[in-house]
Amino acid sequence: MSFIVEAHNALAAKLAERTGFEAIWASSLTLSATMGLRDANELTWTQVLSLVEPMTDFIQTPVLLDADSGYGDFNIFARFAKKAEARGIAGVCIEDKAFPKRNSFAKTRHALEDTSSFTAKIKAAKDGQTDPNFCVVARTEALVAGASMDEALARANAYEAAGADALFVHSKQATATEIQEFTRQWGGTIPLIIAPTTYASTPTADFEAMGVSAVIWANHALRAATASMEQVYGEIFAAKSVAGLEGRITPVQDLLALTQTDELLDAEQKYAPVKPKVR
Ligand code: SPV
Ligand code: MG
To answer: Domain range spanning residue 53?
Structure first.
C-alpha cells in the first residue's frame, strides 16, 4: 500500500519528501485555504497550476493534483491535464461533482455530474497525455452525495472502462463501513484510493485487508501548521516577546538549509566573487 500526504506549498512538499512519503496530494482544500479561499472552485485553474508549480520544481516525489471536478467540460479538463503534465505533475484527480463543487465535508447538498459527461473528461485527458506515466485518477463522490452503493459501483465501473488509471472512492462517514462495503462489492482492477479523514481511527491494516492500494492523508499538514501558528502567535502576543521560543520552533538556519542557500553561496563564489578592493 502507498501513502500519499497533503502538501499545500513547496516547503511542505519538501518536508513530506524528506520524511519519505511516496507521493504528495496537492489538495484543493488546503491550497484554497492558504489563499484565504473556500474549497468551492474559488481558485481558478490557472491559479492552481501556479500554486503547484513551485512544488514540482522543488521536489522529485510525484505530485497528485486535486483538480476538483475538472473546472469545466471535457475540453477544459483535457487542457488542464496537458498543462499539469507539462509542469511535471505526476497525475491529476477529478471528482464527479457538478461545477462549482463544494468540499466533501461542507454541510450542504453535493450535486453529482452525470456519468457520461464525467467519463468524457477521463477519456479526453487520457487521449491528450504525452507522458505514458501521467495518471488520471477518477474520484467518485457518490457516497458523499448520498447516492446508493449501486450508484457508486456503477460509476466506478464506468470510470474504469473510460480509462481511469485509479479510482478514488470518498466517504464522509465516521467509520469505514461504507468503504468496506464498496471494496467488498467492487470487482474493478485499477488501484483503489481512499482518504480516511473522518474515519481516521480505522487501523491502516484494515484498509490493506480491504484491498486498498493507496491512502491519502488529505489535509493534515496544513491543519498541523495552522494549530502551531495559532499557538505561537498567541504566545508572542501575550508575552510581547519571542524569548523562549528558540528550541521549539524551526531554526532560521534550517530554513536557509531547506532552500539550499549553501548552493547559492557556492554559486556566488563562482559567478560573483567578492573582489578585493583596489586601493
Ligand atoms: C481535498 O483535500 O481537497 C480533498 C479531500 O478533495 S476532501 O477535503 O476530503 O474533499
Ligand atoms: Mg479537494
So the answer is: 2-219
